[in-house]
Amino acid sequence: MKVLVTGAAGFIGSNLVHFLHRERPSWKITALDLLTYAGNLKNISTLLDEGRVSFEKADITDSESINALFERDKYDIVFHLAAESHVDRSIMSAREFVSTNVMGTQVLIDAAYKYKVAKFVHISTDEVYGSLGPTGFFTESTPLDPTSPYAASKAASDLMVLSFCKTHNFNASVTRCTNNYGFYHFPEKLIPLFITNAMEGKKLPLYGDGMNVRSWLFVEDHCDGLLRVAEKGRAGEVYNIGGTPDCELPNRDVTFMIREMLGKSKDLIQPVGDRPAHDRRYAVDTTKIKNELGWEAKTPFKQGLEKTVAWYNANRSWWEEIKSGQYRSYYEKNYSNRG
Ligand code: NAD
Ligand code: DAU
Whole-model pTM? Predict the structure, then answer.
C-alpha cells in the first residue's frame, strides 16, 4: 500500500506517520511537508534516518510539483493534514489560510482524482461548526457556522472535498476532531505553551475569563480513528472524532492541572485580553464513528496530560530551540497588546 501523509512534519501529521509505521509496517509511507514555521523534520527524524519513511518537501498549492509526485508514486491512500492551523495567526492574517487550506486542498483533490487514489482522508476540525452553548454536542449534520478565518478556510475545504465525492464519485471521507494534545505539539497552542512556559517560570496568558471549554483528544487516539476511517470509512461521509467522557474542560481547569503537575505557584496565571469572537465551547457527538467503525477514544485526559508533561520534560531541547527562534516575534505580536 502506497500512502501519502501531507503536513507530516507538523504535530498530528508526525504522530500519524509514527502510528502508521507501527500499525501497518508493510505500508510505504511518503511524508510531505513544506516545512513552514510549524513543520519540524526532527518530529520524524528517526524514521527518516532509518529509511523507513521517505520525505518530500513540497507546497500543496504548487499543482505542478504535486501532480508530478502523484504521477510518480501512484498513491493508494492520502491522509491530508497540511494546513495553517492556528486561530490567533488567522486573526492576524487570513491570506495564507485561504491559500494553503482552500487552494492547497483543491490542488490535492484534483491530483488524487486524476491519478485514481483509492481513498482520500481529509482531516478537518470541529471548529467548522462554530460555538456551542453550555449544553449539547455537534453532530455530523450540525450546520457549518465557522467563526475565525481559520475555521472558515477549513469549512471551505470540507465543502470542496465533499463536492468532489458528489460530482466525481471521489472516494473521500472528512474527519472533524476536537482539540488534540500530545507529543510534538507546537508551543503556540494552549497545552504545550502553558507546559513550556510553566517549566521556564513564565506567565500563563489565559484569555478572557478562562471559562471557554475545549474537548481534548489524545493525538494517538486520533491517529487510530484516522486509520479506521481510511480503511473502512464510507465515501462522502463526515466522521466526528472526540476524546474520553472526562475530556471536556474549561481552560482554567486545564491550566490548574498543568500548574499542579509541575508544582508551580498560581501566581504564574495571567488573565489577558480575550481572543476576538472566541468560541465558547466545543464538544462533539462521536456515535457515528463508534457505531460504524468501532472507534472510541481510550486515553483519559489526566493520563494523557501526565504523559504529555513528561514528554516536554524529557525533550526540552526540542521546544527550547523552537521558542528561541522566529517564534519570539509571533509571541510578542500576539501577546503584547492583550493587556
Ligand atoms: P500543524 O500546524 O502542527 O502542522 C501543519 C503542517 O502543515 C506543518 O508541518 C506545516 O509545515 C505544513 N504545511 C503548512 N502549509 C503547507 C503547504 N502549503 N504545503 C505543505 N505543507 C504545509 O497542525 P496540526 O495541529 O498538526 O493540524 C494538522 C491538521 O489537523 C490540520 O489540517 C488542522 O486543521 C487539523 N486539526 C488540528 C487540530 C489540533 O488540535 N491540532 C484539531 C482539529 C483539526
Ligand atoms: O477544535 C479543534 C481546533 O483546536 C483545531 O482545529 C485548531 O487547529 C487547534 O489550534 C485548536 O484550536 P483552539 O483555538 O481551540 O486551540 P488553542 O490551543 O489556540 O486554544 C485553546 C483554548 O485556549 C482556546 O479557548 C483559547 C485558549 N488560549 C489559547 C492560547 C494560545 C488561552 O487562553 N491562552 C493562550 O495563550
Answer: 0.98
